[in-house]
């Protein structure tokens, strides 16, 4: 086993900072003089981002009663933070190359899995009418990002991780611990810290396999359950075929309505297809 934690910190130092539009938006949002028109205008200046944001907000997970055709209406209906977080999720997907390929790990399938988890997590947030729904889609998209950090920076060792997982029929997270001495949830949490993501998002990324951060956190539980559901629904491919058992504590905490997944398959599949098309197939 090699301890590469220090090298991972160094590699994460090299990961670019978040795109300007996100930083400008974050600064504008905390400014006491911020107003809706300024913020909508700022987002509208990036045409490709605006187009994708509108596609995402019009997918069935957001449950909007009518079609939204402008960023200012999207901000009005969903709030600044939700729109900012969607932009952040889109920016992160663009930050990493989608071309590299090692064994069965294809970044495009990885992103489909992450978008699938984002869609399901956000739908759970909607269904349960949680207090801060704007962090749900983002956390789903980000939950496995540590895999890309490891994959992009330690390709040779990551090939061994993939082989190990295949041979031992174990999840990537266990293979990562064995081969690298660190796993993607820890690597993702380091990146979340660098990017100063909200604490609840960082926690969901760090504990998405455990399903609990120890303090009855709904978001971590929702990402955990959505990760498993996305695998069962075959939304993308996360790098291994092994579905872990859900943590009963997470399931208990969420208290989803009876037959939630059976009843939601249609809307989740439609939202997944639409969101994948608008995010991955529009460049
Ligand atoms: Fe994971
Ligand atoms: Fe995952």
Give the CA-CA distance, first to last residue.
40 Å
Return the average pLDDT rounded to an integer.
87
Q: The biggest beta sheet, please?
A: none
CATH superfamily of the domain at 5-15 and 98-280: Hypothetical protein af1432
Query: What's the CATH C level of the domain at 5-15 and 98-280?
Result: Mainly Alpha
Radius of gyration over all CA atoms, rounded: 18 Å
The percent range for strand residues is under 5%
CATH architecture of the domain at 5-15 and 98-280: Orthogonal Bundle
How much helical structure, as a percent, in the residues?
55-70%
Order of helices and strands: HHHHHHHHHHHHHHHH
Q: What structural class do helix, strand and pairing data support?
A: mainly alpha
Q: In total, how many beta strands? A: 0
What ligand molecules are bound, each kind once?
fe (ii) ion
Counting DSSP H or I runs of 4 or more residues, the number of helices is 16
Shape: globular
Topology-level CATH name of the domain at 5-15 and 98-280: Hypothetical protein af1432
What's the quick description here?
The protein is mainly α and 283 residues long.
Describe the structure.
The protein is mainly α and 283 residues long. It has a domain of 194 residues: Hypothetical protein af1432. The protein is 67% helix and 0% strand. It is built from 16 helices and no strands. Helix 3 crosses helix 5, helix 4 packs across helix 6 and helix 7 packs antiparallel against helix 8. The longest helix has 22 residues. The chain starts with a helix and ends with a helix. One fe (ii) ion binds next to loops.
């Amino acid at each position: 086993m090699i301890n590469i934690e220090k090298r991972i910190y160094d590699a994460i130092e090299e990961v670019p900072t978040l795109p300007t539009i996100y930083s400008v938006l974050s600064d504008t949002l905390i400014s006491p003089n911020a107003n809706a028109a300024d913020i909508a205008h700022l987002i509208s200046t990036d045409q490709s981002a605006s187009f994708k944001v509108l596609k995402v907000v019009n997918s069935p997970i957001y449950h909007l009663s009518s079609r939204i055709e402008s960023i200012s209406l999207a901000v009005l209906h969903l709030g600044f933070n939700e729109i900012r977080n969607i932009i952040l999720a889109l920016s992160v997907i663009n930050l990493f190359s989608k071309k590299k390929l090692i064994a069965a790990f294809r970044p495009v399938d990885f992103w489909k899995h992450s978008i699938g988890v984002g869609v399901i997590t956000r739908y759970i947030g909607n269904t349960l009418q949680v207090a801060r729904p704007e962090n749900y889609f983002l956390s789903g998209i980000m939950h496995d990002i540590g895999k890309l950090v490891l994959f992009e920076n330690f390709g040779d060792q990551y090939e061994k991780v993939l082989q190990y997982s295949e041979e031992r029929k174990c999840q990537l997270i266990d293979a990562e611990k064995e081969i690298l001495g660190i796993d993607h949830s820890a690597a993702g949490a380091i990146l979340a810290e660098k990017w100063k993501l909200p604490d609840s998002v960082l926690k969901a990324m760090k504990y998405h396999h455990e399903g609990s951060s120890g303090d009855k956190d709904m978001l971590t539980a929702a990402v955990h359950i959505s990760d498993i559901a996305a695998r069962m629904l075959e939304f993308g491919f996360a790098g291994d075929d092994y579905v872990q058992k859900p943590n009963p504590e997470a399931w208990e905490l969420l208290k989803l309505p009876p037959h939630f997944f059976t009843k939601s398959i249609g809307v989740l599949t439609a939202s997944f297809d639409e969101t994948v098309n608008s995010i991955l197939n529009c460049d």
